[in-house]
Design brief:
2 copies of one chain form a homodimer.
Chain A lengths: L4 E8 L2 E10 L4 E9 L1 H4 L4 E7 L6 H7 L2 H8 L2 E5 L37 H16 L2 E10 L1 H12 L6 E5 L9 H11 L3 H5 L3 H6 L7 E7 L5 H5 L1 H11 L4 E5 L6 H18 L3
Parallel strand pairs in A: 4-5, 4-6, 6-7, 7-8, 8-9
Antiparallel strand pairs in A: 1-2, 2-3, 3-5
Helix pairs in contact in A: 3-11
């Protein structure tokens, strides 16, 4: 078996949407991811990469099918990488609720069993997957992150922890202060245990509280009628902390928009353009 | 129960994506459809309508989620209506194969039992649904049709049969000569019986053969690596007949594109623009 196994390929906006299957060493199981290669990349030019992180219950395919991002990635010549949101399989630990287990990896390295064996999504997204991408595809060393909901948490958290590895992060309706929301508390208790010091290392608002501002560009969009906004997402905790710490972030409240991919698709053009600016395109 | 029951609504590109449930008199069962209302329509301006017909196995949601059409409908102020592709339910006749029965109504009025009782999709799309739309939504009397695969067959066939009711038709990878393809032959035998004279009234190429050119604008896009292109779709039968009869149609072969919605989304902008021109926008 080769390192990457191509599952499907579709021509899309003069580039290619591909899906791959591969063995993940850090997760110790097979994983899927999708990638969009714009025409310039297919011609061999090394292009910047935007990692697009999905939310609860999603696979790599939700962002691929629903966001509409490829149209703008094609215009700017940006490679998109859509990882899965957790390890998966019948031999992989799972939970009966939608917000834990398969489809809900929360982009952390689990330390609690039975999760620790396979749920190493932080290392997967930050290290293993970029190494694979940079080995197999025509990309340069410009990397950014985008995400929706749980993936928005992942994008901001990963960006804040690695500000010299990523140029920009953007999020739609991120779980911006997981230590203070039920979703985050349940996930962190499950994957990390009860020591809250372990939680803080994966909490965007807590990380920001401990930070000094860097050049990392941060953009957040939040729908005003998102049912999860007041209870689970808490973007204002993040925004207020950013202000108090001297970070210059962009935060847009979007009147009347909800939590769905219809919201994401309505504003994805501005997010791709934001990253294009960070890439100097 | 009111005539239209709202199932969901999402703000999208400053307009609204809605899904409705209603009782269909012609199909004698409940049906779903989706509608996209651009901001101008929400403000009460009567706008043109584009009916978007789905392909085999699809519901109203495939085009809604995957085509990306709403972005361009928002720009032009066009209302989109996405009907389902058949009646559905446990009491509705069905088949074990994907190309017949539920999800595969082929936009005909079935005359064979057990299909005739509920499968009256031609009358539903041409009469009942437009009457509902024109009663309940701010639309004017400008109507056009767009469709994918089986829906492309539906769009062209319905347009040719009603050239004074529709201004333009466009199709992605249409089943353009169903009487000469297995999909079409199986559907027409099942729904209409063995009398081929009945088939011809629903076959775009046969209808064109019997026609005189009208002002109806026709656009077809076909992917060159579409697996169904040579065996089931047969667009050249339609294109050659159009040429012989003096119709001026636009036909684009799209190099490297397949049959998926990734193909549709790559060219939907040009189709919406084509209809906008027909609407005089």
């Amino acid at each position: 078996m080769s390192e990457l196994n191509l599952l499907s390929t579709h021509k899309l906006f003069n580039g290619q949407q591909r899906r791959y299957h591969h063995y993940s060493s850090v997760n110790q199981c097979n994983m899927n991811f999708s990638v969009y290669l714009p025409a310039l990349a297919l011609q061999g030019y090394r292009r910047p990469v935007l990692y697009c992180l999905g939310g609860l219950t999603c696979t790599d395919e939700n962002f691929s099918i629903k966001s509409g991002a490829q149209r703008y990635a094609a215009e700017w010549g940006i490679v998109l990488v859509m990882p899965d949101t957790s390890p998966r399989g019948k031999d992989i630990a799972d939970a009966v609720v939608y917000n834990l287990g398969q489809g809900a990896g929360f982009y952390v390295n689990a330390t609690n069993q039975p999760w620790a064996q396979h749920y190493q999504m932080y290392d997967y997204v930050v290290s293993e997957l970029p190494q694979l991408i940079e080995k197999h595809f025509p990309v340069n060393n410009q990397r950014s992150l985008c995400g929706h909901s749980m993936g928005g948490h992942g994008a901001i958290m990963i960006g804040l922890k690695n500000p010299h590895y990523y140029l920009s992060v953007s999020a739609f309706a991120p779980i911006a202060h997981p230590c203070a929301s039920n979703w985050g508390q349940e996930a962190f208790t499950t994957y990390l245990g009860l020591n809250q010091a372990q939680w803080y290392q994966y909490d965007s608002t807590e990380l920001l509280q401990q930070s000094v501002p860097t050049n990392l560009s941060i953009l957040i969009d939040q729908g005003s009628v998102d049912e999860y906004y007041p209870s689970q997402l808490l973007p204002h905790d993040f925004v207020n902390t950013a202000a108090s710490k001297g970070w210059n972030i962009r935060f847009n409240m979007r009147d009347g928009y909800d939590h769905s991919y219809y919201f994401v698709s309505s504003f994805i053009e501005s997010h791709i353009g934001f990253h294009a600016t960070a890439f100097g395109l």
